[in-house]
Amino acid sequence: MATYLELDKCNLLCSCKQTSPLCTLYFCRHCLCLRCPNCVSHEVDSYYCPNCLENMASAEAKMRKHRCGNCFDCPSCGHTLSTRATAVVHAKPDEPGRTTAQKAYFLACGFCRWITRDSGIPDQQQAAGGWQEKISPHFKRISELIDSYHHLAVQEKEDQEWNKFARKRNYMILLERYPVLNPRLRRYCSSSWTTPNREVAPGKKVTIPAAEAS
Question: Using 50, 70 and 90 to split pLDDT, how confident is the model at 205?
């Protein structure tokens, strides 16, 4: 038991002559050999939450900003919060002398014992889907910056493509200026470097509003 967590105690030999523990090796079903992380290329097959194992598509994961809507991290220690249920006694409005018990759910951390009740977050009537995330006051400002930088990136990409096209066009100008080249070569170059019409949209000035100190 003293060496249970020492993973480097027993290493296996990879096909690239490097030793690695068993938990970091992969088995290739095509060549029937062990492969270390340096011998394989990782590709994202699907996105899922490592806590609740909820699977989602790439577009949905991008829309959710790669965050699960049912799992939360502890703000104190970063551990995953778990849902706890309790019974809350309420008085009946039509019968003041009688009470009824109703289930209520709150989030608790099993590591540092932090609960949502300590922060003044009210209990929810359902176990999942009722916890709403607070919107950051800087959310609007960050969204404006992301849109502005995205527009700048698209504009820079278009300029780079146009510069490549312009360099090819300069080569054609040299061929027209010096007609001493072989006519057969000129016909080949003229057929290879055809220049399509490029519709240039009017430039849009990107204005980023200045941030105000609070």
Answer: low
Helices 183-192 + 139-177 axis angle, to 10: 160
Spatial separation of the C-alpha atoms in residues 201 and 105, rounded to whole Å: 55
pTM: 0.47
Average pLDDT over every residue of 89-113? 81
For residue 162, what are its two tokens? Answer: 């146009």
Please tell me the least confidently modeled range out of 75-84, 89-98, 185-194, 199-208: 185-194
Cα–Cα distance measured from residue 144 to residue 65, given in angstroms and rounded to the nearest whole number: 16
> Under a CB-based contact definition with an 8 Å cutoff, are residues 106 and 117 in contact?
yes
Cα–Cα distance, 107 to 117 (Å, whole number): 8
DSSP state string for 74-98 = -TTT-PBPEEEEEEEEEE-SS-TT-
- Cα separation, 14 vs 33, in Å, equals 8
Taking a C-beta distance cutoff of 8 angstroms, is the pair 21, 34 a contact? no
34 burial (CB, 10 Å; 0-12 / 13-18 / 19+) is: middle
Contacts (Cβ under 8 Å, ≥6 apart) of 116: 106, 107, 108, 123
DSSP codes, 142-202: HHHHHHHHHHHHHHHHHHHHHHHHHHHHHHHHHHHH-TTS-HHHHHHHHHHS------PPP
Angle at the Cα of 148 from the Cα atoms of 145 and 150, rounded to 5 degrees = 105
